[in-house]
Amino acid sequence: MAAAPAGGGEEFQAPGPELFEFPPLFAGGPEWLTKPVLFAVVGALLVCAVAWSAFASPKLVPRGMQNLGEVGYLFVRDQVARPFLGKDSDRWMPLLLSLFFLIWTWNIMAVVPVVQFPVASHIAFPVVLAVSVYLLKIYLGIKNQGFKRYFTDMIPKGLPLPTYFLLVPIEYLSTFILAPFTHAVRLFANMFAGHVILAFFSLVGFWFLFEQPTIKGVPLGIAGVIMTIAMTGFEMFIQFLQAFLFTMLAAMYIGSGLHADH
């Protein structure tokens, strides 16, 4: 999108893929050592620090960080783990709790001043998490159900033989390729789109109010500021929701590996 101000001058250029292109942190540094990688590590360390401060020395009557940590623990346990894992919930809570808060921290960085970038909008990070969860699912499935049973029970029995030539490839493609792919892409796409939308409205407000102010452009700039505020609130909800959904699917996949009837 390009729009020229009424009085001439430079055109307004909508933000695009350049928002997700980052040079190395320092001259001559490795190509992979960029801002998203740095803040991915910072996010992980922050989650570790919060967990340590909340649970390292628990008190009978929780206070401060322990109070906050227990609220998060109860939410993940009751809304994510128990519906899919039942009696196995407590065993998998460390993984699910860490996954939820890591993704939420990565997402919320989009609205943190100075950072202003959601780590999960780089596809590599959701892919690593999704593949890790899915490899765990397959490992648990083979371990608990046996190799042959795990790979054969997902195919319905008693169908005409020709049906299996079509059904088997579709079922295996859906289970082992499409499921982890959509698990990762759902998180990535929402964070990617949200970041672009916030950047667009922010730039509209800045451009038409400060960079190239005109009589006709000022209302657009004001609208851009209002939309930036509104979309920031909405995006914060989506950031939480996507962390919840990703962790919920992880619990569902772990449950299907533990029990064939899930």
Architecture overview:
This protein is an all-alpha fold and 262 residues long. The protein has one domain (32-258). It has seven helices and two strands. It has helices at 35-55, 65-85, 89-108, 124-145, 147-152, 161-211, 217-258; strands at 2-3, 12-13. It has a two-stranded antiparallel sheet. Strand 1 (2-3) and strand 2 (12-13) form a beta hairpin. The protein is globular and about 75 Å long. Belongs to the ATPase A chain family. This is ATP synthase subunit a.
What is the average per-residue confidence, as pLDDT, rounded to a whole number? 89
Tally of structural domains: 1
N-to-C SSE series? EEHHHHHHH
Based on the structure, what is the oligomeric state of the protein chains? single chain
Question: How is the main sheet built?
Answer: 2 strands, antiparallel
Strand order of the largest sheet: 1-2
Give the fraction of residues assigned to helices. Answer: 55-70%
For the structure shown, list the relevant keywords.
262 residues; mainly alpha; 7 helices; 2% strand; transmembrane helix; transmembrane
Summarize the structure.
By secondary structure, this protein is an all-alpha fold.
